[in-house]
Amino acid sequence: MFEKSDPTPLVAIEDELLQEKNLKLYIKREDLIDPEISGNKWRKLKYNLIKAKEQGKEIVLTFGGAYSNHIAATAAAAKRFGFHAIGVIRGEELNENSNPTLRKAHENGMQLLFVSRPDYMFRTSPHWLSMHQQEYSAFIIPEGGSNHLAIQGVKEILNEIEIDFDYITCPVGTGGTLAGLASGLHPHQKALGFASLSGEGYLEKEVGQLLSPEFHSRKEIIHDYDFGGYAKHDPKLIEFIQEFYNKHQIALDPIYTGKMMYGLYDRIKKDKFESGKTIIAVHTGGLQGIAGFNEKYGLELKA
Q1: Which of 17, 127, 136, 191 could form an S-S bond across to 182 if both were Cys, CB 3.0 to 4.6 Å?
Q2: Is the separation of the CB atoms in 99 and 67 below 8 Å?
Q3: Residue 64's domain spans which residues?
């Protein structure tokens, strides 16, 4: 169950800036892992769904916002592997036709429960989780899929990388991908997480809870490129995403991977990396959200 056939590609990026700074940059194309269960969502869901099956659960319940990659991927994975999925969605004013993400999740059979933003704040409350678990007899997967089972899956990305590297980067939303990468690094390597939401301290706490103390020094969260918060953007970011696609034919989303790559290139320009180093950027997928983003803001980003 939940096995894929081949490693996702590791693509070398050719760029005058990289030549000027004497750096090597590769993108780990996790966006190509599956058409619907994309990128880090495949990695995070893998062992959660295996555990659900081992426990004899037929229902998985999870949480997310209106455009959540995790909700979209969980709905698709549940349909494919024989579970009934329930998604607790932040925003009582929404419905299954509010945007392409929710429509697709609903089409894939996910039961959507819309709750108020104040109620959604209880998504990590043991009492609230216990109540839902008992009501639905469900296997509960946290928001973003980030738990210790997710760490196990994300860590497998490193097994597919056959070159030595100095830095590996990823976007950070709930912290599971960064924690999974950091947990498999050698002492000379470092994982850099680019925050997609504002609020320094919160993400450090989330990642710290998932990561063993001996690996804390092998990760860093960079907060300079959130563009005002989750799902916020400005023309500079959109222009960068469009130019990157035109140059490399690799689509980036404006919520996660676009911010990571914008921040990475900005830090390269500012000489934050030593000459001769090798960097791997993990493309965590999430391109399904571009349709809703374009619809909401009247843009034409490639997906």
Answers
A1: 191
A2: yes
A3: 40-145
The alpha carbon of 104 is separated from its chain's Cα centroid by a whole number of angstroms, namely: 18
Whole-number Å distance between alpha carbons of 83 and 103 = 19
* pLDDT, tens only, 21-39: 999 999 999 999 999 998 9
Same domain, 18 and 89: no
| Rounded CA separation 280/167 (Å) | 6
Model confidence pLDDT, tens digit, residues 48-104 = 999 999 999 999 999 999 999 999 999 999 999 999 999 999 999 999 999 999 999
- 91 and 153 share a domain? no
Main-chain dihedrals φ then ψ at residue 142, nearest 5 degrees = -70, 165
Residue 126 domain flag: yes
Contact 67, 90 (CB under 8 A): no
- Whether pTM > 0.85 for this model: the answer is yes
Q: What CATH number is attached to the domain comprising 200?
A: 3.40.50.1100
Q: What is the pLDDT of residues 169-217, one digit of tens each?
A: 999 999 999 999 999 999 999 999 999 988 778 889 989 999 988 899 9
Kindly state the tokens that stand for 187.
């002492």
Q: What angle do CA 155, 13, 241 make, to 5 degrees?
A: 90
